[in-house]
Each structure stands twice: as structure tokens, then as C-alpha cells.
Amino acid sequence: MFLVPDLVVRFFHRMASPPHFYAFTERLMPWLVTIFILFTVSGLYGGLYLAPADYQQGDSYRIIYIHVPSAWMSLFIYIVMALAGAIGLIWRIKLAEIVAISSAPIGASFTFIALFTGSLWGKPMWGTWWVWDARLTSELILLFLYLGVIALYGAIDDKRVASKAVAILALVGVVNIPVIHYSVEWWNTLHQGPTVTKMDKPSIHISMLIPLLLMALSFKFYYLIALIQRTRLELLNRERNAQWVKTMVLERK
Amino acid sequence: MMKPARKKRLILISLMLLGASVATGFALKSFNENLMYFFSTTDVVEGKAPKNALFRLGGMVIKGSVERPDDGMMVRFKLTDFSKEVTVEYTGILPDLFREGQGIVAHGKLNNQSVFIAEEVLAKHDENYMPPEVKASLKNKPTQGSGQ
Question: Are residues B15 and B82 in the same domain?
Fold first, then answer.
């Protein structure tokens, strides 16, 4: 409002209007898909082919190119979901409510992938599929929070009311996010400490780090694409009686 | 400026977040001991670990301490947290990453001689990823204790 440049404010005001959002994202989509493919192909090629084997784990470590970006996304998407939920609660912006609920299944999927790939790696490396240490347990709670959000939204028929309920649940669950992130530092855990996000230089070799960061970007773009598609669908569903939807459908016939 | 109704909702949501964080903070603080996945070797030597009960012990396998006394499946090694040491005995198959100088977590209990009899040994991977050539070149320099 006073710190944000006028141009940005106007952009968000326009975006908050469903017809503008619908038209704008349609033009944006091919670009997003192109960037996503570029990052994914270069990230996978770099991670699975160019990067050297690890001195201890050999080739098994390569699961980090899926596991780590998924785990990062599981936290990132939750924060986006809670923020969008808060914006929906405070400003009553319909689009923010839809962004919040559309994020939940994507976030839940990334959380599941992080838990699943971690488990696959844990068996040969640690010697167990699963342990109840602070990192694994808090990440499992995150999955349940996502599932709770999805279930709560589905249980309430009035979608405006459902969005409010879901936003409150998502906001309360935000306390879990720093717990997940810092669990490996606050408590003794079987899960290793942070590699990339340490304050000093990351303890991963640069040839292994670059593909990891490429995959992280690729996952970010995947989220953006999936989020936009889900949001457009939910928007059409909610606004099916609105004039702009009727006009658009008639124009396309 | 923000409309009063919005401002009120913003304040309410902030208070809700603050309340939830404080409650979580207190809960985590009071359960701090239970959230520790394992005890350190110092805890065991100082008698903080449970007696006659199963618990987990974590530490680094001391270089040169791994031995197989009866040429069988039983392995004996010493764990350290760079301050105190505990002897561990384990019968069974060790995980891939088990080696000297590596962090591990063992599940078991202490016997009367203060030797930790492990029923399960898990390898704790550290946060370092590097190609073998880099590791080899690091070995020529003075090594730093990476620990857990």
C-alpha cells in the first residue's frame, strides 16, 4: 500500500479480477511450459548423467535431485497456501481463496514424493525405511495438514465459507514450517543436517549443486503451471453463472 | 489506507498466529527431551540415559575401534561425541554406510559393564556430498572432524 510501487499494485488489482486473470494466464502458459521443460531436461541431464558419483553413497545419492526439490516445494507451497488464505480472509479476494485451495493437492503430492523417495533412500543408506525422528515426523504432519485442508474444503458446501475455514486451518499449521526446517538443528535426528541452506558455503560439490538448483527451479515452474491450471478450472466452476464466462464460451463456439 | 474492517481481520489473524506459535513453542520446549531421537555418548557416561530400558545412542564410530572378537557376526566398536566414549556390541548385518569415522545411531540397552548392547544399528549420513576425487584430495590436507 505505501511501500509497494503503484505499477505493482495496479498489476495485482488487475490480476485479482477473474476475467483478466483468465486471459493473462492463457497467454503466459506456453512460456511457462517452455521454461519448465528447459529446466527439467538440463537438471535431469546434469543430475543423472553429468554429475559425478558420491564418495560414499555412489549413485544412490542421485535421488536428491527429486527428493530435495520436492521437500523444498512442500514447505514453499504451504507458505504460499497460507499467505493466499490470509489474503483471502483479510481482503476477501476470491482469486486468493482459489489459489490457496488449488495449492493444497500440489503441495500434498510434493510432500508425499519427499517422504516416499526419502524412504526408498533410507532403507539402503540408514538401514531402515522409516524412523520417528523430528524431521520425518514433522514432514508427515505436513502431509496430514495438506490432507486436512483438502478434506475440510470438500466437507463444506458453501465454497466461500469453506475457503475461510481452510485458510484458518492453513494459518495455524504454519507453525509446523519452521519446526520442519530447524528440526535437524534443534534436536538429534537421524536425518542429516542442512546441506545447501547452511549459512556458510554449501557442503555439496558445485558439480552436484548446479543440477540440484536447476531441478529446484524446474519444480517451481511445475508448481506455477499446475497451480494456474487448477486455479483457472476452479475459477470457471465458481463463476459459471458470471457474464464474462458466458461471453467467453459464446465467443469460442 | 486500510479499511477498519480489514485492519481488524489482519490484527485478529496476527494474534491467532502469535498464539499458535507461543503454544507450539511451549509444547516443544516441554517435550524437548522426548523429541531427541538419540542420546549422546556423554549423556550415557554421565548417567543421563535410561537404565534397564531400551534407548537410542548416537555418535561417531572411532577409527580403528571396530573389531570382531569371535570371528562371528558380533561386532564391537567404540562410539564418541568427541568428548566421551561408549563401547557398543552388535550382532547382525550392518547398513551400507557403516564405517569407521561415520556417524551411527544404535538402538539397545546398557549391560552391567556399561557396554551398550545394540539390537539395531542405523547409519547416519552426514550432509556432505562430493565426488571421490575431491574426497581423495581432501585427505591430503589436515582433516576436520565432521562428526554428526
Answer: no
Give A131→chain B minimum CA distance, Å: 9
Q: Which residue of A has its CA nearest to B32?
A: A187
Alpha carbon distance A171, A155 (integer Å): 19
Beta bridge partners of B120: B107
Q: What is the span of the domain harbouring residue B21?
A: 4-34
Over residues A17-47, the pLDDT tens digits come to 888 889 899 999 999 999 999 999 999 999 9
As a whole number, mean pLDDT of residues A184-202 equals: 78
C-beta atoms surrounding A150 within 10 Å:
16
- Here the CATH number for the domain that contains residue B112 is 2.40.50.140
- Looking at the domain assignment, is residue B74 inside a domain? yes
| Statement to judge: residues B50 and B79 lie in one domain | yes
Q: Count how many domains chain B has.
A: 2
Check if B127 contacts A (Cβ < 8 Å). Answer: yes
Looking at CA atoms only, how far is residue B60 from chain A in angstroms? 13
What ipTM does the predicted assembly reach? 0.76
Q: Which residues of B touch A124 (CB under 8 A)?
A: 95-96
